[in-house]
Each structure stands twice: as structure tokens, then as C-alpha cells.
Amino acid sequence: MDRKTKVAVVVGGLAAVGVAAYALTRVKPTTAQPPPTTTVEQITISAPTTDTVGNPITVTATYTINGVPQDNVPLYLFYYYSQTAVSNPQSIPSSSFTLASIETTNSSGQASWSFTPTEAGYYYLDVSSSANNT
Predict the structure, then answer these.
(1) Dihedral angle computed from the Cα positions of residues 62, 66, 69 and 73, in that order, rounded to the nearest 10 degrees
(2) Residues in contact with 81: Cβ distance below 8 Å, sequence separation at least 6, in sequence order
(3) Is 13 left (phi over 0), alpha (psi -120 to 50) or beta?
(4) What does DSSP assign to residue 92?
């Protein structure tokens, strides 16, 4: 069955009236497919920004998947040491980091480490759920 209707279109401030045709088509209902699931793994790190050589600091990390804290997951604390500041810490290759310690997350998804800087300089910390820091 074809149906016709009038359509008003504004062009340069002038109204033009035209006729447009469209076909009424029946569509067979289908079952909606669920969208593909996306897993978002996130680790957030908290640590002091300054310290004194030989003074231990506490590093805390929270591990979540899709916003839900994960318990009983081993997390690995890595560090990279430099005598001078690195202008872009994201450019430090993960293979340059040294494993400092391993802790397991609690029911809140948190793990904590005590880390003691051994010499003056810059320590860049990274936490991973992978033992090879990938």
C-alpha cells in the first residue's frame, strides 16, 4: 500500500510545499541481540609524591573489573629508578621496571606494599596483575 503526504521544506527563508511518497513496509520482529561485552580492567595507585631516603612509604592499589573490586588477585609492584626526572614517564618501557613485591587484593580489591627508597632520585611505580608487567 502506497501513501502520500505533503512535506514543507524551508529554503532560504521561503517555504516550498512538495509531495513525497513513501512505502509502508511491514517488518518481521526479531530478537534483539545483546551488545558485545567489554571488560574494563583498572588498577589505581596511591603513593606519596615525596619521601626521604631510607624512609618507607606505603603504596596502595585498587583492582577492579568493570568497576567491581576483585579480591584474592595477586598484584605486582614494580619500580623504575632514575637520578633525573623522566619528562614522559609513559615512555618508560615496562621491561625497564624492577619487581619490588607481590601482594594479594582483599575483599575491597586493595593491596598495599611498604616500599623503601634506597637512594635519592626519582622512583616511578607501576602495579600490574601480570608478573611480567604487561
Answers:
(1) -80
(2) 98, 119, 121, 122, 123, 124
(3) left
(4) S
Q: CA-to-CA distance for 110 and 75, rounded, in angstroms?
A: 9
Percent above pLDDT 70 for the chain: 77
C-alpha of 32 from chain center: 28
Q: Kindly report, residue by residue over 71-95, the tens digit of the pLDDT.
A: 999 999 999 999 999 999 989 999 9
DSSP letter assigned to residue 30: -
- Within 10 angstroms of residue 121's Cβ, the number of other Cβ atoms is 12
Spatial CB neighbours of 101, under 8 Å, sequence gap ≥ 6: 76, 77, 113, 115
Give the amino acid at 72: N
pTM: 0.70
Classified as helix, coil or strand, 130 is coil
90: cell is 609513559
How much is the pLDDT for 1?
A: 37
Query: How far is residue 40's CA from residue 77's CA, in Å, rounded to a whole number?
Result: 20
Phi-psi region of 90 (alpha: psi -120 to 50; beta: other; left: phi over 0): alpha
Report the chain's mean pLDDT, rounded to a whole number. 79
